[in-house]
Amino acid sequence: MKRVLLAYFSRPGENYYYGGRTDLKVGNTEVLANKIADRTACDTYRIQAADPYPHDYDATVKRNVREQDTDARPAIESRLPSLDGYDTILLASPIWNVRAPMIMKTFTEALDFRGKTVHPVTTYAMSGLGTTEPDYAASCPGATIAEGLAVRGEEVKGADTEVVAWLRRTGLPAR
Fold this sequence. Notes:
six-stranded parallel sheet, 5 helices
């Protein structure tokens, strides 16, 4: 049976919501990661920034633009997991400015993904999977980049049917 690791980065706080703002106690990507974890046999690892992102949406956008412009690698707070024994890695994050946050590169570049199957999982406002597929292909050399899942942030709470259909299509082990 496949062993699966779901590694996710999520940011609670003020978020984009249908052109306005809403305050999330739990970030959209964490909500989606929990839906996936409830339905498939996987271990989870939460990627947390050593320097947490601001609660304020606009301040987070500014920091993200600065990190993308400088090709930054934000530090991760806790020890990274070992990928030994995992066949499949689900990399879940929001999409910020068409890309996964730069902390995802910190994560992927620090680990050896050779021989693993990687599924991008994203929450977004307008960009779907964004550039995750080519970005993960570059930062996870030797991995197979497989079908991803993209859920609009505003719709994540009601995405059960979409999650189940994706899990069936990808053949990930069900609970």
